[in-house]
Amino acid sequence: MKQRPTDCYNCPNEHCLIKQHCLNANVDEHLDRKTTVMVKKTQNIFIEGAPIHSLYFVFAGTVKVMTTGIYGREQILRFAKDGEMLGIRGFSTHQYYQVGAVALTDTVMCSFPLEVLNKFFMEIPKLTYAVMHYYAEELHSSETKVRMFAHMTVREKVIDVLLYINRKFGQTNGFLNILLSRKEIADFAGTTEEQVIRILSALKKENLAKCVGKKIGIPDVEKLRREINEHHFFIQT
Amino acid sequence: MKQRPTDCYNCPNEHCLIKQHCLNANVDEHLDRKTTVMVKKTQNIFIEGAPIHSLYFVFAGTVKVMTTGIYGREQILRFAKDGEMLGIRGFSTHQYYQVGAVALTDTVMCSFPLEVLNKFFMEIPKLTYAVMHYYAEELHSSETKVRMFAHMTVREKVIDVLLYINRKFGQTNGFLNILLSRKEIADFAGTTEEQVIRILSALKKENLAKCVGKKIGIPDVEKLRREINEHHFFIQT
DNA sequence: CGGTGTCTTGATTCTCATCAATTACTGTGG
DNA sequence: CCACAGTAATTGATGAGAATCAAGACACCG
After folding, report:
1. How far is CA A52 from CA A20, A113, A119, A207, in A?
2. Kind and range of the H or E run holding B211
3. pLDDT, tens digit, for every residue of A173-193?
4. How far is the CA of A165 from the C1' of D11 (A)?
5. Which of B68, B124, B128 is most worth mutating to test chain A (most A CB atoms within 10 A of its CB)?
6. What stretches of B1-83 show up as alpha helix (H) in DSSP?
7. Chain A residues touching residue B139 (CB < 8 angstroms)
8. What percent of chain B is helix, strand and coil (3-state, nearest 5)?
9. Are A1 and A38 in contact, with CB atoms under 8 Å apart?
């Protein structure tokens, strides 16, 4: 469902790289090619395997980015919230980007054709530089995730996911600002629904987590973090 | 051990991004700040946890990039050969890059101070753009690795590693052009030495691999690939 | 020719995925 | 407002796979 395009000059998302680098840069005629799309909860934003012609930004909402792993398992790669980019990873020599994105809440997306993005890159070196840094950060956290998957126990993986979600979305009134099913947590942690439930039950007994409906709270973040850091020497991202 | 700096203009590594973008670009005075270092087999190139002040290129040789994972386990992240960059991932807002690099063969490295790299980025947008693409590719393969680690069996992981090594280093006379210990294969695949040995023994019996000393050969790459692809729908990197 | 490190195989233990069964929750239509 | 269906959450039992432990074979090097 389309709606009137949002105005980048009045956009509240200060971290959006377009807002940071493409305004007042003599590219307003390209900016005008932006479209704004409204996506309902649980709807697809782009579909796995389909070629991507656009770069997306989350204007408002929450999105999960996922891929189909081995034996058809769903693997969640990351979550995106206001101001973050989607589809930028498709910007490489690979024709296909085997990744799909699904809205977790009603979401408003901004979208540019990839050719416009390329024009931005040509004309605004600072943007290219910023995107390069963005990739570097993402690569860093992806490689951290590789380490994590390699040898962590299920308990550690689930705790790590909880900590990640807490860093990214924060808590209000003692509960995380994102609603995920047990299945989704499992798909992100690389385990199964049942294991996540078991770990959460254990954490509840230890007063390290509390659950009310689908809402999850972490009363003592530090204590959880310590459990992971006992065995990890590296800086978390 | 230092030696006379190599001359970028006569460098044989056509894929080196410096060679591709920084020659004849009015930055020769920066190019002159390059140093060339000779590293013996098994020696460290940079050490985990230490801040990185330089960008490295492999001029000639083979290098493993690794990190310390959980319970002090070694996790190999990737291998680098002639013309490839090292340390570029440290180029982000993170102060520390918890990664080490070790020479697998006697290796000649080129090195630029990071400040020189930054000058290159400022003055050569095409280089920034190319590095951005490089990151995008690396991110793509790192995310593929995340999927792989999440749910593959040990057998699949080992096969995947063999295929990766084959793509990257190739075979001559029926044997892979890189010598790795069982332990190193395990550290790359995210499993243990014993499991790698078991899988290799099984593959030998099935005529899918042959071992002579430390040399490993893959007679039928296609057959191995099929075994993985039965359960994976995605394009390998 | 010891000695050290890598490689190999078998036995054991343990973690985790899977399967199955039960309960709780949500929304819908009568 | 409640009955019902469909989905999500939970718990227990079981088996498969993989890490660990232990012991021996092999090669390489001084």
Report:
1. 24, 9, 17, 45
2. strand B210-212
3. 999 999 999 999 999 999 999
4. 26
5. B128
6. 17-21, 28-31
7. 89, 135, 138-139, 142
8. 45, 20, 35
9. yes
> Scanning the structure block, which residue is given the tokens 């319970």?
B71
∠B86-B91-B97 over CA atoms, to 5°? 75
Question: Residue A147: its chain B contacts at CB < 8 A?
Answer: 67, 69-70, 75
CB atoms within 10 A of CB A111: 21
What string of pLDDT tens digits covers the 237 residues of chain B?
A: 445 567 899 999 999 999 999 999 999 999 999 999 999 998 888 776 666 778 899 999 999 998 887 777 889 989 999 999 987 766 665 556 577 889 999 999 999 998 899 999 999 999 999 999 998 888 888 888 887 788 899 999 999 999 999 999 999 999 999 999 999 999 999 999 999 999 999 999 999 999 998 899 999 999 999 988 777 554 444
Determine how many CB atoms are found less than 10 A away from the CB of residue A65: 21
Residue that the structure tokens 């919230």 belong to: A81
Q: Is the dihedral of CA A177, A182, A183, A189 positive or negative?
A: positive
Reported as type and span, the H/E element at residue A76 is strand A74-80
Token pair belonging to B149? 């680690």
Tokens of A187: 């798909």
3-state secondary structure of B82: coil
Element (H, E) at A122: helix A114-123
Q: Does the distance separating the beta carbons of B235 and A98 come in below 8 Å? A: yes
End-to-end CA distance of chain B: 35
Q: Is the CB of B201 under 7 A from strand C?
A: yes
pLDDT band for A50, please (50, 70, 90 cuts). Answer: low
The residues near A86 (Cβ < 8 Å, ≥ 6 apart) are A45, A46, A55, A56, A57, A58, A63, A65, A80, A101, A109
